[in-house]
Amino acid sequence: MKALVYTQPKELQLQDLPYPGLVPGEVILKIDAVGICGSDMHAWHGHDPRRNPGLVLGHEFVGTVVASDAPGFEPGTRYTGNPLITCGVCDYCVQGRNNLCSNRAMVGMTRPGAYAEYMSIPATSLIAMPQEMSDLAASLTEPAATAWHAVNLSIRALVRPLHECSVLVIGGGAIGMLAALLLRHLGVTRLTLSEPNSLRREAVANHAGCQTLDPRGQAPAENAYDYVIDAVGAKITRQQALVAIKPGGVIMHVGLQDWGSEIDMRKLTLAEITLLGTYTYTTADLRATVAALHTGAFGDLAWVEQRPLIEGPRTFEDLDQGRSAAAKIVLVP
């Protein structure tokens, strides 16, 4: 089968790899579509020590079962999936917080991912979806669930209802775009998105209908927002979030571009700022997100670009150089 293999920093190669073996409890999927995640880009840059050369990346997928060794998962049925392979028995799993599983593995990190014609995966990781749902919408389940999980965690911490809040989203990539679309759906009217790429700013303005700003020339206003989502996670964006948040506000930290940085702990303390971190999503989030995507809660998805899998190497370069307006590119084997 054909697969995109991460061979060294800033290099993907289309290679012929063996067809996956079928093991008990797993299925083999024919991949119908797979998205490019920011974490895949992070790995491609050589910045993720958990993802080593020789790996097939890709974890935002939809596929059709072609072989099954799991009862109830029949060939010909389409699924999206949870790329986190969880144990099901640790404290976090039994609490329904399997995104924090103590023994988790991951598709496209500890096992071959979905940038391939076929992929094996435990049947317990599959997420049922309407069979008439489009490949494009289904392939967005994983990133959309990240936004869904982050926003719902934030709502618990906000002092006032979400729709009353002034909100800043930092970053116009897929998570920032999906968060903005979800916030609009949930009734937020005072919404601003900060993004340096002019193509992405235009796309966000057109599809999310919110104000945008270029942080290179217009920093977010100080003490102006009740709620800030940092969908980048760089040193500078963490600093911007702390400056922009009002006293008593909530910052949701989603992105992980930089592993560490200083933040203004004095303001965090004296202004009673709530700083939250989030990691991926639960299985319940994924199921809810499938329904939300299918019913149009995230809009018409016209901002998503599709390309053939064989164009993967060039696509990563285009994303790296900011040559695409699309916040999300989906590859089709």
Describe the protein in words.
This protein is of the alpha/beta class. It folds into two domains: 2-140 and 304-332, Alpha-Beta Complex (Quinone Oxidoreductase, Chain A, domain 1); 144-277, 3-Layer(aba) Sandwich (Rossmann fold), CATH 3.40.50.720. Helix content is 28%, strand content 26%. Strands 3, 4, 5, 8, 9, 16 and 17 form a seven-stranded mixed beta sheet that branches. Helix 8 (265-270) links the parallel strand 14 (245-253) and strand 15. Helix 4 (141-157) packs across helix 5 and helix 4 crosses helix 9 (283-294). The longest helix is centred in the middle third of the chain and has 17 residues, at 141-157. The radius of gyration is 20 Å and the shape is globular. The model has no long low-confidence stretch (mean pLDDT 95).
- Flag low-confidence runs: none
The helix/strand series, from N terminus to C terminus, equals: EEEHEEEHEEEHHEHEHEEHEHEHEHE
* Overall number of structural domains: 2
Rg computed from alpha carbons, rounded to a whole number of angstroms: 20 Å
| CATH top level assignment of the largest domain | Alpha Beta
Topology-level CATH name of the largest domain: Quinone Oxidoreductase, Chain A, domain 1
CATH architecture designation of the largest domain: Alpha-Beta Complex
Main sheet attributes: strand count, strand direction, barrel closure: 7 strands, mixed
**Helix fraction bin:** 25-40%
Kindly, what is the distance between the CA atoms of the first and last residues, rounded to a whole number of angstroms?
A: 10 Å
Total DSSP E strands: 17
Q: In terms of structural class, how would the helical and strand content be classed? A: alpha/beta
Full CATH superfamily name of the largest domain: Medium-chain alcohol dehydrogenases, catalytic domain
Overall mean pLDDT score? 95
Bin the strand percentage: 25-35%
- The tally of helices reads 10
Outline: globular
